[in-house]
Amino acid sequence: MTDLSHFPIAKRWPAQHPDRIQLYSFPTPNGVKASIALEELGLPYEAHKVDITKNETWGPEFLALNPNGKIPAIIDPNGPGGKPLGLFESGAILTYLAEKTGKLLPADPALRYETLQWTFFQIGHIGPMFGQFGYFFAHAGKAIEDKRPMERYRDETKRLLGVLEQRLEGRQWIMGDEYTIADIAIFPWVRGLTVFYKAGDELGFGAFRDVQDWVSRAEERPASQKGLNIPARD
């Protein structure tokens, strides 16, 4: 049996199946990227709810795995060389899982890098900008009297949706016919604009028809339907 005892996080969230990938997460747009990918790839894993509403990522056990205190994080008991590997940052996790299995990332070098550029587009732009918009529009920031911050992030969110709309014209997925980690990285964040932030009207979301259809296709995938709720909030 695999021994994960040298990982402090395994003491706070003990593994019932230490031979499986251990997922430490919460069902946010960032968190579900990992669970959806694991479901798509059919990899055995065990999910542990790290409740960010209770600041559980800031405890010493979680910080020992991710010093930045953000979900998701994983431990793969069968990492490179057969040794356990701890990993954080959703983009790194998606790339690692794809390369581990040879799926969700094209083998052709040029297409591989094109997929990675769109994955990093989410990490560098969509995640930060959508998140700031959500803060000022739907969360604590909405109480701020000066609406210029919200308007700034709203306008940038709309611009980024326009980039996606252009990319998806005539395409089923970000990379065309092949569903990849780029789709998994991006669609939960776009979905969150209407599902979590309730900002469809504010953003004129109805005008982005190709984006809407793409999100619907991604949501309908069995792995998405399951992964979007892992770990369960309750």
UniProtKB/TrEMBL annotation:
Domain GST C-terminal span(s) in chain numbering: 108-234
Coiled-coil stretches: none
Domain of life: Bacteria
Transmembrane segments: none
Pfam families: GST_C, GST_N
Signal peptide limits: none
Domain GST N-terminal span(s) in chain numbering: 18-105
InterPro entries membership: Glutathione-S-Trfase_C-like, Glutathione-S-Trfase_C_sf, Glutathione_S-Trfase, Glutathione_S-Trfase_N, GST_C, Thioredoxin-like_sf
Family (UniProt): Belongs to the GST superfamily.
Protein's name in the database: Glutathione S-transferase
Organism, scientific name: Tianweitania populi
